[in-house]
Request: fold
Amino acid sequence: MIKRFFVLALLFAMGLLFTDLLLSYTPDTELNSTALYYANHTAKDLGAANIVTAIIVSYRGLDTLGEVTVLFLSAAILVLVLPKGWRRGKRKPRILPSTGELLGTGSHLLVPLILLLGVYLFVNGHLTPGGGFQGGAIIASAALLLLLTNPLQPFSRHLFSVVESIAGLCFVVIGLLGIVYAGGFLDNRLLPIGQLGELFSAGTMPILYSLIGLKVGAEFSSMLINLSETKDS
Amino acid sequence: MVLIVMSTGFLLILMGLYGSLTNRNILRMIVSFTVTNTGVNLVLISVGYMPGRTAPILDETVAVSEVAQRIIDPVPQALVLTAIVIGVGVTALMLAYAYRLYETKGTLDISQFTELKW
Amino acid sequence: MVSPLVLLGTPLGMAFLLGMLQNRWRFASYGITLLTMTCMSLFSADWVLGFASGSLVATDFSTAGAPPPFAISLRMSLTEASLILLVNLAGLFSTLYLKEELLRIGRRGMAVLLIDIMALCGIILTRDIFNLFVFFELVVISTGGLVLLSDDQRAPSAGFKYLIVSQLISVLLLIGIIFAYHSTGTLNIDGMAAASLGLLKGGALAFFLILIAVISELKPFPANGWALDIYESAHPAFSAIFSAAASSAALFAVAKLLPMGGESWLPVVSSIGLVSFLAANLFALCQENDRRLLGYSSIAQTGLVLVVIGQQDILGERYLFIAGGILLAHAVAKAGLYWLSGLLSNRHLTAWTVLRQSPLLLFAFISFIALLVGLPPFPGFYAKWELVHLLAQEGRLAILGLVLLGALVEAGYLFRWFGKVVKRSDGGEEAAVFSVAPIKTLVVFAAVAGGWSLGYLWGQLSLFDNILHTIPVLFALGFLLLERFPVWLKNSLAIVGLVSYYLISYPAYDPMQLIFGTVILIGGGVILLASYSVSGRRMGFYPSAMLMFAGLSLLIEAKDSFHFFVAWELLTIGSYFLILRGKQSEPHALSYLVFSLGGAFLILAGFALAAEGVELFPLSSLSQVTADKAPWVFILLAVGFMTKTASVGLHIWLPGAHAEAETDVSPMVSGILLKAGLYGLVVLLLGMGKQQLYGVELTHVMLWIGALSALLGNLMAVFQEDAKRLLAYSSIGQMGYALFGLALMNHLGWLMALMFVINHYIYKSMLFLSVGGVAKRTGTRLMYQMGGLITLMPLSFIAVLIGIIAVSGVPPLSGFGGRWIFYNAILTAEYRLPIILIFLAGPIAFLYLFRLIHTLFLGQLKDEHRQIKEAPFWLIVPQMIFVACLMAFALVPGVALRRFDLYLNQFFPQGGLNWEGVSITSQFGYWSPVSIMVVVMVIFASLLGWLIFVNRKAQKVKQFNMVFAAERPYRPETTHFAWNFFAPYKKALGFLIQPLATRFWGMVMDLLHTSADLTRRFYTGNGQTYAIHLLAFVVVVYLFSMGSL
Reply:
């Protein structure tokens, strides 16, 4: 009880801090210098229609590299954290109730569509809302659907890890090539920036975002699979 | 409008913190942290919002010439994407840890894991 | 030069590559990891060299072909380069160290390790605040993975606690970042600093959130329970990274962020650092687990660097030198200690006793401890010296005091640990296993080499001379290389070294230095003759002894405060190691060290206060200290020096330390080392003269202290049962006399004090040697277990006899001369009461001396002692030399004293002595040494002749020709006449020697320990509670800083 009271008191103080922040906040009416630069230069310099994508993939590409590394790390550590021997198949095969006709058929119908949507999202990331992370997450949702339908679904783990590693490596290599052949690390002008609004435009941006999409999809999927196999062990 | 979203975000943060600091069950703590993260993300995007403007994507409605007057600040949106992904990574890790801890002790009560102290 | 982006990209790419490999290609994966780490280290070393040679300037590297505020940029300068070199080396060596674990856990673990190191470099390099957040999160997650390298079952719970806390930290950081972005319109750290974020509306709060979040990564007290749990349970190689690399990176992040908030935040940072430094050191006092103790020490050191960062406004261009010195010393030492801990199987502090099996590892251990404590010649020493001076210059005395206090506590527990390692028994069945994996050992030695090279580097960078360039220090360290050779060789070398150093340097000495120099160098050589009696290799003795002599000889040559203090620290450490060698000396050596370091810190503070910003403060400028500071400087220095002379109240370390030391060490630390304190007082009094504080004459206070020390020291000596303790207590009394003489501040007082320097050296060394010889033969030091040794050990008897005649100041020996000058001196002074005390002390001295000779050599011979022989030849040799010296000095005291008397005329022109002919005259009378000698000899000879004459028909009686009473004593020793020899006096005067000082210092220690033990319990081990601590920490700092800003 004392603990709860103490926590409440602390949170009250935090609330005061937040209120302080809130009260001193005045929404901007004009874009600040950074945003203005992005607004004015993205289309002209990088040839991307989606400014957020340009920021994520190019201007703040190092963040994004860190971000995919976070997922890579999480996926790798997940395997380390989960107790040893949980996947050796030493335990009895699980006997599961049938998932039902509806789910089975539905998933067969939906999975290709979901995959397609995911791919569409990251391929067009530099033009329309969406991008690698969203597309990757959607691809992983296909894996989730398959797991729900059949928890014993055999997935090729190695495929996932090869996909995520190659995607990551390519990301780094393209980034480093940018230092040599363009303005800097992850500069998308490694390739011609093309015509604003077309699929093959904005230099390496669509390639990078597709790599991110593949990587994120593979990582999320392998995380889901690893977590699902802990069940019932 | 912005202030409402922002205060909702702060409120979610406080609620999440309360949950994570008072619930002993590790899974509940993790769920509370995701609530907190949602609150943080809400605060993040509310900062870049400007009334009457549109998403920072150049298309038929937003011409290249008038882009500076038509779009909202794109930076918080980029940041929030990163924050979300990192949040997912940490949450996944915490869940795996929860499983590992459950395996060792057969309980999810955080107050049982105090062999290391003082 | 390799672009910093390649530095980040390569390990990342390699980590991705590892993700692709087959699980079974373990060795290939390990090879890739190792190769990557090596390349990264080489690349960063290349940068460091480039900057150090001056061919490079700090450069920003932008990404994405856009200018810095709009795209993430990285900066590379000397600081960044050195830190990433540190991080990469920590990574490389830990990879080597972790070979087995990494091969077991597979490629994923290696990838995580690579990413961890990469992310730490990222934290250091990036100039973008959100990018900083990303790298911090990478470190958090990879830490979550690397904690699992440990086979400790508790490690996962520690990792989870860290994840909980890091969630809170990231919430704070993100909110802070977004509002800071809103206020300034940029995410670039330099842009935010240029827009002075701290002054904008809402900006101060945003900055507070960012700052507190990054500081929380530094594990500040009290929000650090999780970190301790990680330190305790993680694999030591990871703890090495966590302590050395991660803390350094986070510290650099704090330093990088601070310009955003402005100078008003510096005090906040300092306070957090100071609280952590003190609290962590205090809690470490009660730790028994080695890794947890190291964890506390890490937190403390990080706190200290935080203090330095917070003081950067006054440190100016020395900021990097100071912060870097402390940080790098800490990093290398802590990494080394964690690697070392991985060689041992048992986690208890005493389990480290197995290190004794390997002298090299023991050397590594003490090197690391010296690095941490900041002893010369390591970087922390230079850094602390400059830090303290700058703090004193700016009048930040509270911070100065607390930093020194914390450092003292830290030295206390670290050296207590060292003492345990060197002295404790192995612990029998639970003896720790000691693995000698060659790679791991190699990694440890890499850290040792790193530490020593840093010491050399910092010596070169310092404003003063490099300590490692001084000949005496090199001579002492050279003995480390000779450890394999037998004693006789090393001993001869040592004696030759001392004597030849004296011959080289004495022409340049003034009479004052000459007296001290002769006692130290020639006197040391004579005592070392006794060391020939030891056989074997005597590992560790010669480096320690020579270090002490190096310190002593440098001390008397020092012209400025820096060299003086260096010498002081060297002689303290050297003598500590020497004293520690005694069989039962562990607690005494520790209390000696703690008192000495405490005294040294007072001296440091005193010099810093006196220097007032002068870089090289000549000792002669002590006279020019401004009047408002002078008395305080005087007090600090005087108390510091009186700690060494063991003045009453600060004396409790002496009896144990001197009594428990080895036979040939006792005379060194008693006869020679105590003079260091006197020399300090001489320098102080010559420089500053009489000082008054609130109307109190400070030399008058010293006079009282001297008189009380003389009286109480002698009194305590009277009631000792242990012969060496008796001599030790008598030293307290003797030093009291010398202090009294100096404090008289007149010509004769000083002459007498200087005479004491010579006299005390001779007779105390002689007595310690002969009593040591007796103790060696009889196997006991308790006087009631001896007796009647006169016939078996006649030479020792002669030495003791001559010694006590000299000490007690009866004619004809030099002690009488001392007394004579002394009585002349006090007749000219007007302090009546202390004079009475000092008069009283004389007869008391006679009591204990009588007891010494009576109970050892006279009376009944014990049955078990019938077969014993005279003391070893080499113990007798120096004693006989001393006897000869005493005789000579008694006959012609003028040889030494006359020059000195003339020398004193320039300071005290009044009241000198007249040295004409064989007799010496003062205003009260004359002293003719030769005629006294003749008279006494005649009396002695005639009495002896008469005795022989009347006893010519005496009959010899068998020893046991007596009747035993029908009483069975429960403690047989109580029936011995030597037991409680002076019982009636004890009844009368016992109240005076209540161990008040012992009780007082004991209480201080208990208080520290109890409070530490009680408060550390608030680290309950519950991860949730830790999160609450963090939140409370944030709130408290928020309330404080908002109140003060």
